[in-house]
Design a protein that fits this description.
The protein has 11 helices and 10 strands. Helix 2 packs parallel to helix 3, helix 3 crosses helix 4 and helix 8 crosses helix 9.
């Protein structure tokens, strides 16, 4: 049986961040036989998170409580990740998990994938499994293509289906992120007739030299009039980008003051935040502090 301190109250009192990401660009250079797209993207982590709490239990049961009733079901990626890790390791210890949901769903911010990653990373510690980051990333890949980047915990260039990761240092700019509350289906965007799937492949150097387009943006604007209107209005104040397959859009700023000034010009009815770009996940920093 895994040797874990079930009476360790520190676990029960500690909340672990599950950060969001932005795709600073997204290119599709092909499509695989199984339907998956050949992607090129840049992930930048940002300083806004969901929060998770894990308490080990000796019954072997895995229980999840979530602040969002819509996510309190067996298909939740947190539950799937915990059960996957338990089965893979043959661990007989369970966990009570609490998820405080802050990030909107279907927003292109990676919330579900990040939740799964935090679950794998922290339960690896809680259950004293000793798995490497690569092993956890391989497990995470079976849950979703974005999960490995959150496990690695670094901003990164990614290729393949988005899971071949090269960590990179990016300017830690400030961002104004806008989300209308509209859910964008990745499947609907990726299967849309207007999506260009054979764009020329680009390199990291191309990105650094200014190739920052998201090839899904025109499709999302065509699919959703509300998001198209937001893009048009937002573009009056700044250059606007979209993360992932939507629905969140963002602008880049050099300083927090510049970002706040931009935020104040936007309609009150919009969901919007000023957030800082990060090169290291706050989860990694939290782990380091917890184990000092």
């Amino acid at each position: 049986m895994v040797d874990v301190a079930l009476d360790n109250k520190e676990w029960a009192e500690h909340w672990w961040p599950s950060p969001a990401k932005l795709n600073l660009m997204l290119n599709i250079s092909g499509q695989r036989a199984g339907g998956y797209h050949e992607l090129q993207t840049v992930f930048q982590l940002i300083a806004i998170s969901d929060w998770l709490n894990f308490t080990p239990v000796n019954t072997g049961d895995i229980e999840l409580s979530c602040s969002s009733k819509a996510l309190s079901n067996d298909d939740n990626l947190v539950l799937r990740a915990a059960k996957l890790l338990q089965q893979h390791s043959a661990c007989r210890v369970g966990a009570k998990i609490v998820l405080k949901k802050i990030l909107p769903m279907g927003a292109g911010l990676g919330g579900g994938s990040s939740n799964a990653a935090t679950t794998l990373v922290v339960l690896n510690k809680v259950w004293n499994l000793g798995y490497t980051t690569q092993t956890l990333a391989n497990l995470g890949r079976t849950l979703g293509a974005d999960v490995p980047v959150f496990i690695v915990g670094k901003s990164a260039w990614a290729e393949g289906i988005g899971d071949e990761i090269t960590p990179m240092q990016l300017p830690e700019k400030w961002f104004v992120v806008v989300n209308s509350g509209h859910h964008c289906s990745t499947r609907d965007v990726f299967t849309h007739k207007s999506l260009t799937r054979d764009n020329p492949a680009i390199t990291i150097r191309d990105f650094l030299d200014g190739q920052v387009q998201n090839v899904c943006l025109p499709v999302v604007r065509e699919m959703n009039r509300e998001l198209d209107d937001i893009y048009i209005q937002f573009s009056r104040f700044s250059t606007v980008y979209m993360t992932g397959t939507g629905s969140s859009m963002f602008a880049k700023c050099d300083t927090r003051q510049e970002a706040v000034a931009l935020l104040e010009q936007l309609p009150e009815s919009w969901g919007k935040w000023v957030v800082k770009g990060l090169n290291e996940s706050p989860l990694q920093k939290s782990l380091k502090q917890f184990y000092i």
